[in-house]
User: Fold this.
Amino acid sequence: MPRIVVLVSGNGTNLQYLIDKVKSHELNVNISAVISDRECFALKRAEKEGIQSFCLNRKGKDFSKNLLSLLNKYADYIVCAGFLSIIDPPIIQKFKFRIINLHPALLPAFGGKGMFGNKVHRAVLDYGCKITGCTVHFVTDDIDGGPIILQYAIPVLDNDDEQSLAQRLSLFEHNILFESVKLLCENRLKVEGKKVNILHA
Ligand code: GAR
Assistant:
């Protein structure tokens, strides 16, 4: 069974969704470890489920080295589910097209360094967008710029704020992340340049 490591920094609702899909046998992977870059509730979720969890100090000088050695030990594939640290190029090279990231907007809009969580929703609202959405993409050295795997769009409503957008988007985020992990672990994603072709089962 493919071993996936989930990288987290926050609440961990996406991690929980993946855990639940594994438990219901809709996702045939082994979540072999959860790694965070700070203290966060996602770690508690992992501990509660009996999944190996590690909290690394993102400000420490050995952060990337420690991350790489854990990934070497535990990962076939890596899923960034609300992970807020930038992954170093040597790790990306080592796990080329085996690392995916969930982003709370329709990339290539509203991505890049410093664009995460509610900051993304604020920027979408300030721009006056009529639609927004979520994206799962491969992680490359280009922050939030890797080949797109799945996206889902939702309307921005007149009375939306950051919280309402985040809340309405969350179920769609869970779903595209779950579907992407499934496709990745079933080896059904073929990257050609910027395009990801999805192979039929
Ligand atoms: C999700 O909304 C995800 O799109 C976002 O963090 C949240 C994590 O939620 N990721 C980013 O902003 C990455 N740039 P969770 O901790 O409840 O899974």
